[in-house]
Amino acid sequence: MNRLSSLKSQWRAGFALAATAAAIYAASLAGLTAADPSSEKDVKTEKQTEKKAEKKKFSGADLYAMHCNRCHPERYATERTAAQWKTIMLHMRVRANIPAEQAKAILKYLQEDSGRP
Amino acid sequence: MKNRLHVLAVLPAICGLSACLTSPAVAAVSDDEFNALKDLVNKQGQRLDQLEKAHEQDQKTIDQDKQVHEQDQKEIQNLKQRVDDTQKTATDAQQKAEAAAQVQPIHPIPEGPAATHNFTMVGDAEVQFGKTDGSHSAFVFADFAPIFLFRARDNILFEAGFDVTLQNGTTGSHDSGTETAVDLSFATLDYLINDYVTFVGGDMLLPLGTYSERTAGWLNKVPDDPLPRSLVPGSGIGAQLRGSVPLGTSGQSIAYSIYGANGPSSSDGSANHDQIDLGGNVGIKSDGSSGNLHGSPSGGGRIGWFYPLKPHYDLELGISGQTGPWNDADNRLWSSVVFDGALHLGPNIEVKGEYIYDWVQTDDVGTLNQHGWWIQAGYKLAGLSLELPLINNIELVARYDELNDGFSTKAHRFTPGFIYYITNTLLFEGDYEFAESNNPDFDHNQLIFQLSYGF
Question: Are B236 and A91 in contact (CB under 8 A)?
Fold first, then answer.
């Protein structure tokens, strides 16, 4: 009986995890689809977003100071090559929960100032 | 002009002469005089014709001069136009050059395809010197903690972190010889599925709070871990989905993670309170066979909110938790919840902390309610703007941490200290820990100096 209830709890836990994972994946796909400016409403929303972005848009240097200095002193862009920064930013995007677009802006800033391919 | 005056002067003379010649009352004139006058009149007439011709020539010359002048004016206008155009072109070129200088990187990236693979090593190394109450002072710690990063593609990364430490050997009754410990801190395969979802699998740093993921030696502002971190595991074998979703363009974002892991286990298989093993249960048993030490995995996750006002001014709040069975019979749960927060008020002020609460179901003492919290503040003296290099490189740090294991140990500790930034990655730290506890293992003050290097 205990074995049976144990199996049930395993199934429940597994099902819950799988359902949550599926929900996250579906939500991410929905987010990507919503970013497609196919309808007029989307175009309007995009324009509003652009206006807001003009008002308050952080540069790569701003985002670098914002995210990286939360945990450690600033590293100089010249310390690494552009290829190494790409790898390190992949690592930090996952580790520090940096949104993809912001991670790309930080990477561009670091690569441009690294001076080495 | 002179020609015209001559004409005007001659005309009255001619008129007067004509009047004399035609008047009947005029006195008699000889033929010689008449002929002389006639010649004079003829000459004057010829002279007048010449003057008129000269005048016409002058007029023609003047007209030609006018035409030449007009042409010159036109050419001058054309030249002026060309000069204006040239100046405009030069101004445009200058503006474009200035704009390009702002956009162009200081060191442009050479063109060409980027390498798809890259191997990079980062990490840190530490050396400690300590003096604990009741013990001799000593160099107590040497740690080399490399992190190997291999980027296989733009969205696939393998990362592994190690801790290589040296300690005394345990041969005989007295420490002798040395032992080198090599621990795998984490080893994961990261697959970035899209902008919002990343799959992480392997030996993961668990997102219970933020401390375990931001705990490298040169990141910690106090050399050792807060007391309540002993209530939660730092890593676990499993799989995780995580990501971050930006909220508009304000810089705000919501971070999430959800994972399944083997979870904690029991040292002897029982559910007695002193047998819980948070760090074991890695999926490969001591006999080499594979399998979870209990029937079910644990599940957990974290959700966090990051709110930046501007660079160096931000707030981060998060809540995380994990639950799952821990004994071999698979009928006792270990559950935990962690609240974390961090605040930055400028480049010189930082405050962060965590609150941790565990529920541990046991066979011998019922449910243990373990809890603890820590808060840490740092202030960089550069904020005083004293223009003194030695002072500007110092950060003052203080931490308070507290632990209640729910059964026998209560401890609290206050740690003031400093960090001297020799460079941006070479740090010298000094701290004194004032500790108080009902457990002798925790009840001792300690002085620690640490040299840390991040690479």
Answer: no
